[in-house]
Each structure stands twice: as structure tokens, then as C-alpha cells.
Amino acid sequence: MAEETRIYFIGTAGSGKSTLTQAYKNWAEERGLNAITVNLDPGVDKLGYQPDVDIRDWVSVPEVMEEYGLGPNGAQIVCADLAAVHFHEIAEVIGSFRSDYVLIDTPGQIELFAFRKASEVFLNSFTSGQSVLAYIMDPMVARDPSGLVSLFLLSSSINSRFNTPLLNIIGKSDTVTKEDLSQIVEWSLEPDMLMSSLYDNMESSKPLAAIEFLRAMESFNMHRDIIPISSTKMEGIEDLYNYIQMLFFGGEDLSPD
Ligand SMILES: Nc1nc2c(ncn2[C@@H]2O[C@H](COP(=O)(O)OP(=O)(O)OP(=O)(O)O)[C@@H](O)[C@H]2O)c(=O)[nH]1
Ligand SMILES: [Mg+2]
After folding, report:
1. Cα angle at 20 between 16 and 21, to 5 degrees?
2. Is domain 1-128 classified as CATH 3.40.50.300?
């Protein structure tokens, strides 16, 4: 068995993290790969799938709200910090599955994962295997040039915080036209095209900052390609798998097929 590969699905609220977690598991199982799902959101009410490991077995937002007299957002932050105490145990439970792939569904509020210390502690709780962040972008935001720059900015900001590789995904790719999707992909591959679309939008004052941000990102080489995925149509999941294989195994296929 190869070492465990952990994929963290992160993204803004409603970007499709939970749906992709489950879709990836279904896809992997169809290929004969073994994969488990982990819910890392202590506040989720209805998940839509049964996770193999669930943070709510250790800490939960409703309990913390009750105990500390907090609202849901304050309780999420306390939960993240309380959960950190259990991360080694959770990592051991995850390891006990001896699974090739661990699919980790993160909280709705991206800032909880992106900016709290707890996520770094969780990432470092594992003593073997490898981790990748799969950052899901909203296609409705990405089809606007300054929207795409702001999504890249968030991606770059997360990338600069963690010593973990990050892949950019356009989620719900079935919800935009093929033309919009190829425009987004083209912009991500050709920063000059994105820059010129930003200039085309110059009548409004909004893109000025986006132009400066894009220049800065180019100078740091933060710009990167994007993987379109539709979880509902099961499209693009194999591309994500291939990117991960390239990243960690130089393209070697783990599938028993
Ligand atoms: N059309 C389409 N809808 C999708 C896709 N993925 C998710 N959705 C829908 O988008 C909504 C949000 O999906 P979730 O998977 O719950 O998103 P999430 O990021 O886990 O949401 P939070 O955890 O609340 O932040 C649901 O209604 C899903 O059915 C997709 O690939 N295509
Ligand atoms: Mg979710």
C-alpha cells in the first residue's frame, strides 16, 4: 500500500466541498481505490453523506453554544481550538483505516480553515503520508475577471500560510456555459489575457486594484492553472486525481485496474 494521501477540500461557503468529498469517494471506489471521508466541520447540521470519521464525535457547535453561551460563529472558533486537543487521536483513527485516500471536508466558513492555528495543527498531526489542499472556486465569481483575481488572491493567501501544495478547482462547472468555462481556464493559463480583460472593464473603478494584485501575483509566480469539476455530473474528478498523482507519485497510477 502506498502512503496515505489526504485531500483537504476547502472553499467559500456553499462552493461544493461536501458534494465533491462524497463524489470523489464514489469515483475512487468505482475505480477500486480505497478512500475514506472525514468531516472536519463541527457545526454542520445535514451533511448529505455518512462520513467515516466525524469531528462532531469529539466537539460540536450546538454543545459549545450551550455550554459557553455563544452564537454559532463564536462557537465555531471555540470548537476549532477545542478540537486541536484531539487532533492526534483523530489522526490515529484516520490512520487505522489504512486507506490510500483520505477525503477531508472542511467547515463552510473558509476563514476557519485558512486563518486559524488549529488547521495547521491538524495538518501537522500526521506523521506519514502526504497532504494536498483542493481549493474550490465558485464559477459565478470566476467568470468576472476581477472576481477571478480575488479568488486567486484568496488561494495565494492560503497557499502562503501552509507548507502544503494547493490545487485550484473550478467547482460546479456544469452551472456555467462552456464558453464561460473555457474563458476562465484561458485566463488562468494566460495571465496576459486576464490582464487585458481587466483593462477592458476599466470603465468601473473596481478593477484597478485587481490589476495591481494580478501584477503582484505574477511577480511571485502565484498564478496557476485551474481544474474544472462538476460533482453532480462526475466530470473532472479524474483530472484532479491525475494532478495529485503527478504531484506525489510522478504520474504513477495507484488504481488496481
Ligand atoms: N450543479 C451543481 N451543483 C452542485 C455541485 N456541487 C455542489 N452543488 C450544490 O451546491 C450546494 C452546496 O453544496 P455543498 O457540497 O453543500 O457545499 P459546501 O461547500 O459543502 O457548503 P458549506 O459546507 O455549507 O460551506 C448544494 O445544493 C449542492 O447540491 C455541482 O458540481 N454542480
Ligand atoms: Mg459542506
Report:
1. 120
2. yes
